[in-house]
Batch of 3 targets.
Target 1
Amino acid sequence: GYKKVLEENRKLYNQVQDLKGNIRVYCRIRPFLPGQANRLNPVEDVDERTIEISATSKNGKGKKSFTFNKVFGPSAKQEEVFADTQPLIRSVLDGYNVCIFAYGQTGSGKTHTMTGPKELTQESMGVNYRALNDLFLITEQRKDTISYDISVQMIEIYNEQVRDLLATDGGNKKLEIRNNTANGINVPNANLQTVKSPLDVINLMNLGHKNRAVGSTAMNDRSSRSHSCLTVHVQGRDLTSGAVLRGCMHLVDLAGSERLDKTEAVGDRLKEAQHINKSLSALGDVIASLAQKQTHVPYRNSKLTQLLQDSLGGQAKTLMFVHISPEYDALGETLSTLKFAERVSTVELGAARTNKDNTDVKELKEQIASLKAALARKE
Ligand code: ADP
Ligand code: MG
């Protein structure tokens, strides 16, 4: 009866979702910051899936539009951004591997999205904190049927070297990456810390941020030239059957994607820029080949893609937050960021968009809800 129809519908719903692929790209536009003088704004969020860039070129004024799975305008709150990320995060508890990236030029809001501003409040907390809080909440709800262990690692990749941000000894040892390990832990020598509460997470993240700042000065902000990755390992044990399931989530604040100014392109800066270039293009290549369902995926081209290999592709779910600065001065970088997004996206960008899939999903969702209600009345 109802149950069977409900099951059928759910199958269909999952199929429609699968068609859409496991790669999502969200675009977030940073607001103008207090005191910013240049208010000429070439970026406009048209609706919740489209942005428009107006550019003046030799050939006159033109507009180009880009479509994403979701667009967050300058006034979007951290809470809203998280709400659209939540289902992905929750799937870790069901044994999925998940990768969430923040991409964009320095100053475009990557750290704001993932962590939040320096002075954290409940309201300004970024995805990382909210994700862990959410995981604690659900494991508590499920505690009579499944017993979960949650542990975290925090590492940094700088100049193609992996460093432990939770090391208590400064973390200057270089770490090795292993893939396809039995326990799913691919940086076995990085500190792995069990967390039991949001406070544990805050303390660890503070330690990680402190360690990350080591070696940087005001003139030399290393955090914009390294990738940082918070990895959450989840292990759940079914209390009746004893079956164990593992999930893993990487929350990655990428190095700034800006191209180096020609005048700066010497010495250490040049070396850093080359490493960043190499790893971001390797990441782009991997996600693009997954989006296009190619058989060969080039994971081995950078430490970043090696680190994330087990969580990109297959059944894993990927979300890329692409960050845009609103200023006219940033236009060149904005366009190059959008070009990157275009490559990794399964959404056809710039083309006339169809809402058919969305309509199908929406209708099926409504049907599921009404069948559920009917079922509840029957029982
Ligand atoms: P990135 O990590 O990409 O270099 P940040 O996250 O540090 O950029 O953002 C640069 C500045 O802009 C910071 O002062 C940050 O607090 C502010 N900022 C970024 N995004 C937002 C936002 N959505 N709302 C308010 N302030 C933001
Ligand atoms: Mg940052």
Note: Residues 267-291 form the longest helix (25 residues).
Target 2
Amino acid sequence: MPANTQTLLLLPGDGIGPEVTAEARRVAEMVAPDLQLEEALFGGVSYDAHGEPLTKEVMARAHEVDAILMGAVGGPKWDGVPRSKRPEAALLAMRKALDVYANLRPAFCFPALASSSALKQHLVEGLDILIVRELTSGVYFGEPKEITQLANGERRGVDTQSYTSGEIRRVAARAFELARGRKGKGQRFGGVLSCEKSNVMESGVLWREEVTKLHKEQYSDVQLDHMLADAAAMHLVKAPKDINVLLADNLFGDILSDEAAMLTGSIGMLPSAALGDPGVPGLYEPVHGSAPDIAGKGLANPCAAILSLEMVMRWSLGRPDAADRIFKAVNAALDAGARTADIGGKLSTRQMGDAILKQL
Ligand code: IPM
Ligand code: MG
């Protein structure tokens, strides 16, 4: 193997994960035939095979490759499994271990899908938002995190929202840099729109102060606005095109990105990239879940997985030309009328993959 061979680790996972990842794999083989592809078990399927949703071997391999493309994890089958062995725990452990703190979730409305959105067409036509979600801290990871028995017989569930200034600054820096690289469209919030709940949360106060400070020190050329996260949720459905880059913590970013997904027509269209410091392998995944209700039926939309591959090419492998090719092919396939059920068509997962491959 030549020394400069790049490796992509595929983790198809559970539910519709394997179906959509298979299509992304075919696209990868086409646009980057020299790319080394590996596959491993992850999530529920790994738990079934090894009693662990993420084995040490797979985790070790993840640190060595250039990028990781995940399908989806979880499903009702593992509902009764203890939290630490749940498929979702594997995902959180992987994000944490790789320290991929900046989660890029682009909400882009393909012209052909503007009429598929739940919102009126004029509100989403030309929509191009980049959500930057903090991914390795906050309430997902804060301690204590427990359910305890109280003396009065009740039980108490606790999660801890915690952020350090360093954790806020590094993800905010990424958001500012990304905003610099994006052509603004003269939007009302044309730079970074930072969201928190500083009206009720101390971590939100710190978030706002640190983002403001960093902006003043290093990024004053970028427009910065702040908005309470609940108001941002409202603004996303009222006038989404006002927003360019939306920065939020782990939990608010999770919720706001699902909301933004619906603006684009379907959550089946949304890719994501989780990035750490330079040199760290990126972790890529469709924003959609494992969709157990349609798993194995060939109904899932492979676009989010294929567009996640596009992000792999762009952000981890330094192959912008391959990325552009993928993006254009997805756009052309949609323009030609290719649609899975979630976006109002009849194509199967494989047929949608075929339609995109044909455009490459
Ligand atoms: C996501 C998902 C995950 C999250 C779940 C599956 C743990 O909703 O990536 O948005 O909450 O981060
Ligand atoms: Mg989510």
Note: The longest helix spans residues 202-218.
Target 3
Amino acid sequence: MFKVGIGYDVHRFVEGRKLILGGVEIPFEKGLLGHSDADVLVHAIIDAILGAMGENDIGRLFPDSSPNYKDISSLVLLKEVAKLLEEKNMKIVNIDSTVVSQRPKISPYTNEMKNKIADCLKIESTQVNIKGKTTEGLGFEGREEGISAYAVVLICE
Ligand code: CDP
Ligand code: ZN
């Protein structure tokens, strides 16, 4: 049996934080605000996986109110989700995702992101796809106020 899931996330830019996307630190003049490392791509992927599993969402599994998750690497959360998948005997077929940011361009970093995400999920990096997209200056991403990310995942059981 196959199950599909969708994930979406947004974080706003702030001064004085590192920019972490797909577990990779990207040199940029500002970072994303959030309780964890605010890795908007990994959060969208986690929500897509949880969606496919029928397991609510990232905020319910890892509450903002918990000090355990303050400034935590979102890759740690992704590994937790990988454990849940294993417990349920579910396997990821593939992940596709889009990061929407006017700047920075992410394509120089997507191979490293794919490797990190695949490692956490114990899958091949060829099962993970990451695309970058601008909005041609339109909307909050275009004004460089924040970054959004979309992900879909197919899992089989
Ligand atoms: O040309 P089109 O409108 O389809 O795409 P775009 O948003 O102008 O982006 C052009 C190319 O830049 C994309 O195909 C990506 O390869 C790259 N890109 C990126 O790496 N990171 C982003 N945040 C946005 C775009
Ligand atoms: Zn998030």
Note: The CA atoms of residues 46 and 81 lie 7 Å apart.
